[in-house]
Design brief:
Distance between the termini: 32 Å
Number of strands: 46
CATH topology of the domain at 313-498 and 560-566: Neuraminidase
Number of helices: 2
CATH architecture of the domain at 313-498 and 560-566: 6 Propeller
CATH class of the domain at 313-498 and 560-566: Mainly Beta
Helix content: under 10%
CATH superfamily of the domain at 313-498 and 560-566: TolB, C-terminal domain
Strand content: over 45%
Mean pLDDT: 87
């Protein structure tokens, strides 16, 4: 506006007198015309300022920080009034607990349900919570689902082993996601009726506002890679998103026309996206470090966390008394430890490598890491000369030299879910599923001239540990029973003792005479169990030096003598926000 006024002044000054002077009547008219032009320019400028200011308010959301402590927020929900918020958190390494706060407050108070996690809040103000949730896998918790009034009271237990749940639109019934063992997780609605059972695992079920549809995150077998799927109440697919390297968190827009979700195409720093029923996707918001959406109020405020996630690698090397950090980038996942405890194999799949996941070798003395290959989940050969790597999409097996040599593929390109060396170093065992069949274990020669893969377990088995003598594979059948399957062929032997749901098998020990079991939750307790008698004794307890945000130890390996070990610990730090202005 200032520029225009200056220009008008120059024109009017130069136009008076001289050879271009106006006649008297025209000069009188120009005296009225000039103020009109200036007024029009002022009004236009004011309109432009208002327009751009208004447009900027829409494009720049406002963040209201709700929490300020150091720890992890697992999930959060708006109450029906849109002002109260319930969230589950683990602060400074303390046990997980439910807290309540308000949109206009920074104070939080315990709800009175220790060791609980919020699953959903109904339109009638009833909560579905998970009592005593425990780590089930790297990205999931499972607990006993209970119903409790938002105003307080004793919870009423409903169902065991529930990972996610949501209320129907009328607040009368619940959809739940439960573990499914070898056949992946299962989505039930109503409870007891399976409407969606993928090959791997699903999470974050949410009903649409009108109750006609459900949205879920559908993941691959190992990792939180996956996509968003919209289904009807019978499990029929209506729309699905692209594939992302990380998908965590979703919520419906209040009008029910879009699902908003947090994901990232490559790396781990999630952004906020939207998916509609036509399959169209759009980016809503991107922030450094990543965000996770938890809920959207009826008036459009978004409840999300700003997250910082890391997977760190630690090891106790032979002859040492203190653990050493062996992390290389931001997502150092331990894959294997040599029998002498001097070498680790780990994979990187975070922000540092983007879509170029890699397998690395590093010595536990702290010397620099060496990138061996693209891919994931390497296993070191008994002689240390090769790494067995899963590479490609779908993943297939490759042998990669740890020193001089050329990599080579083994077997076919059937998708593999698990792979391990046989101790003689001449063959490997992997789990795969042929088209139209369930998963089972196979043995495969590593020599290119060797025999073809041979099935050694029935369909429906998963996981597996090879005994130190190379004669047995310990795996779990479709009924969650653990068996020792003879690799050379013959009748399997059932494990003669039960393993509690809170524990999982880590490895054989004592030259195959015992097993090491571990707890899923932290602190990590390692128990040695005699295979012949079932006698148990505490072997070791591991607690991360810094407990804040430490959620799980997804993988741990011990040396042959049990004196050295290596593990990865997942750390997740969160800050909760209510956000206005996201469109």
């Amino acid at each position: 506006m200032a520029f225009n006024l200056e220009a008008l002044t120059d024109i009017s000054t130069s136009s008076r007198g001289g050879i271009n002077a106006l006649p008297l009547e025209e000069e009188k008219s120009s005296r009225w015309l000039m103020p009109a032009i200036v007024a029009a320019l002022v009004l236009a400028s004011w309109a432009g300022v208002y327009f751009f200011a208004h447009r900027g308010a829409v494009g720049n959301p406002t963040f209201h920080e709700i929490t300020f402590r150091n720890g992890t927020i697992w999930d959060a929900r708006f109450a029906p009034d849109g002002q109260s918020i319930i969230y589950g958190a683990t602060w400074e390494g303390a046990p997980q607990e439910l807290f309540s706060t308000r949109f206009d407050s920074t104070d939080s108070r315990p709800v009175g349900l220790p060791s609980a996690q919020i699953l959903a809040i109904s339109s009638k103000g009833e909560m579905a919570v998970s009592l005593h949730p425990a780590v089930y896998s790297a990205f999931t918790q499972a607990g006993t689902m209970a119903r409790v009034a938002l105003a307080g009271g004793a919870p009423r237990e409903v169902l065991e082993q529930v990972m996610w749940a949501d209320w129907s639109a009328d607040g009368q019934s619940l959809a739940v996601i439960r573990p499914g063992g070898a056949n992946g997780d299962r989505l039930e609605y109503p409870i007891g009726t399976v409407i969606y059972a993928p090959a791997a695992w699903v999470s974050h079920v949410r009903f649409s506002p009108n109750g006609e549809f459900l949205a879920i995150a559908d993941h691959i077998q190992s990792g939180d890679d996956g996509r968003i799927v919209i289904i009807d109440q019978h499990g029929n697919r209506k729309a699905s998103s692209s594939f992302y390297s990380s998908v965590q968190g979703l919520a419906w827009r209040p009008d029910g026309k879009e699902v908003w979700f947090s994901a990232v195409p490559n790396g781990a720093a999630r952004s906020l996206y939207a998916l509609d029923f036509s399959g169209k996707e759009r980016l809503i918001y991107r922030a450094p470090g990543g965000v996770t959406i938890h809920d959207i109020s009826r008036t459009g405020e978004v409840l999300l966390t700003a997250d910082k996630t890391r997977l760190s690698l630690f090891a106790l090397a032979p002859g040492e008394t203190r653990e050493r950090s062996l992390s290389w980038f931001d997502w150092s996942l331990l894959n294997d430890l040599s029998a002498d405890g001097k070498t680790v194999i780990f994979s990187e799949s975070g922000e540092a490598v983007g879509n170029n996941d890699g397998v690395f070798l590093r010595h536990t003395d702290g010397s620099p890491a060496v990138r061996l290959s693209d891919g994931d989940f390497g296993r070191l050969s008994p002689d240390g000369k090769w790494a067995l790597v899963e590479n490609g999409k779908p993943p297939h097996l490759m042998l990669v030299p740890t020193g001089v040599g050329e990599p080579r593929e083994i077997g076919d390109k059937t998708p593999h879910y698990f792979a391990e060396w046989v101790p003689d170093g001449k063959s490997v065992i992997f789990t795969a599923a042929d088209p139209g069949h369930e998963r089972r274990a196979y043995v495969q020669d590593t020599d290119p001239a060797g025999s073809a893969a041979r099935a050694i377990t029935p369909e429906g088995t998963y996981g597996g540990l090879v005994s130190p003598d190379g004669k047995w594979l310990l795996a779990t059948d479709a009924h969650h029973q653990r068996w020792l399957y003879p690799i050379a062929g013959g009748e399997p032997q059932k494990l003669n003792f039960d393993i509690p749901p809170a524990e999982t098998i880590t490895s054989f020990f004592d030259n195959g005479k015992s097993l090491l079991l571990r707890t899923r939750a932290l602190p990590l307790k390692i128990t040695r169990v005699d295979l012949a008698t079932g006698k148990r004794e505490l072997f070791k307890e591991i607690v991360p030096a810094d407990p804040a945000g430490a959620q799980s130890i997804p993988f741990i390996r011990f040396s042959a003598d049990g004196k050295s070990y290596a593990y990865s610990v997942g750390r997740w730090l969160s800050d909760l926000y209510v956000v206005d202005g996201l469109k």
